[in-house]
Design brief:
mainly alpha, 10 helices, two-stranded antiparallel sheet, binds FE2/S2 (inorganic) cluster
């Protein structure tokens, strides 16, 4: 164990094949645009979600639950009405999706690039200070290895988001209580939970969980089922970046929509069918 610790302590980031020096490269394309756009979008969305989920309610923000639409940032709504005013209910649940996204393999690649220039892009030189970087073998980045745990946890709020579709489609109160509501909000909530499910199911760790620990996919019926599952998850995984962005945007839009409804800025266009 001590030998292994010594190896980890001595671990340094390899030089790689990019040119030495921050931003130096032989690339002729506009390689900086991609991380710039991604970093800007990520910062705006993450900043809004942090403000809305943690800060807005304690300082008197609008309601996050309107006419059966509960903002996904607050689901499941724990200790309803029992928390001190300065604690947002979002605080109790957001650490799970936050931890899941922060440790996601795709997001790691993206924010290492646009926040730490590590590296700024493929085949682009990075700051020499990175030579001291011990990668994900030392604190704090060793915590990235918790990703699989966050994957397991992420299915808890995801399950509640599916359950939240019931009041989104069948409002429990109001003039149309008990009727089937086909509205913009219910459609937005459905799209959001589908995209979040796609994001979770396309996770690299889940793919590894499904297909790992096997040397032979054709040796038994169980192994063949495992192989089929792994193939399906692999197909989803191919588009993991797309799932990541689409679900990031949809969860933001769902929260914004609920807030706008609560403020009376918009009304929910909907048709109701008695069931
Ligand atoms: Fe992105 Fe697991 S790799 S969620």
């Amino acid at each position: 164990m001590s030998g292994q610790s010594a190896v980890l302590r001595a671990l340094r980031k390899p030089r790689g094949t990019a040119q030495e020096g921050f931003g130096r490269t032989n690339r002729r394309d506009r390689w900086g645009i991609y991380p710039l756009v991604q970093g800007t979008a990520f910062t705006i969305l993450a900043g809004y979600l942090f403000f809305s989920g943690i800060v807005w309610n304690p300082i008197g923000g609008p309601a996050f639950e309107v006419d059966g639409y509960l903002s996904p940032l607050f689901s499941p709504w724990l200790f309803k009405g029992q928390l001190p005013w300065f604690i947002s209910p979002g605080l109790l649940i957001l650490w799970i999706p936050l931890g899941f996204r922060a440790t996601c393999y795709y997001y790691r690649k993206a924010y290492y690039r646009f926040y730490f220039a590590d590296p700024p892009g493929c085949a682009v030189g990075e700051p020499t200070v990175h030579r001291k970087y011990r990668m994900e073998a030392a604190f704090p980045f060793i915590l990235q290895n918790l990703h699989r745990i966050f994957l397991y946890l992420a299915f808890i709020p995801l399950t509640f988001l599916w359950i939240d579709l019931i009041p989104a489609f069948v409002p429990p109160e109001g003039p149309h209580a008990g009727a089937l509501r086909i509205g913009f909000g219910s459609a937005l909530f459905l799209v959001n939970v589908v995209l979040l499910t796609g994001f979770s199911l396309s996770c690299n760790s889940l793919r590894h969980l499904a297909g790992g620990r096997s040397d032979c996919f054709s040796c038994s019926r169980r192994r063949r089922v495992q192989y089929t599952l792994w193939q399906r998850l692999t197909r989803l995984n191919t588009h993991h970046m797309g799932w990541a962005w689409a679900s990031f945007i949809s969860v933001t839009l769902a929260d914004v929509y609920v807030r706008l409804l609560a403020m009376g800025v918009v009304t929910d266009p909907a048709v109701f069918i008695q069931i």
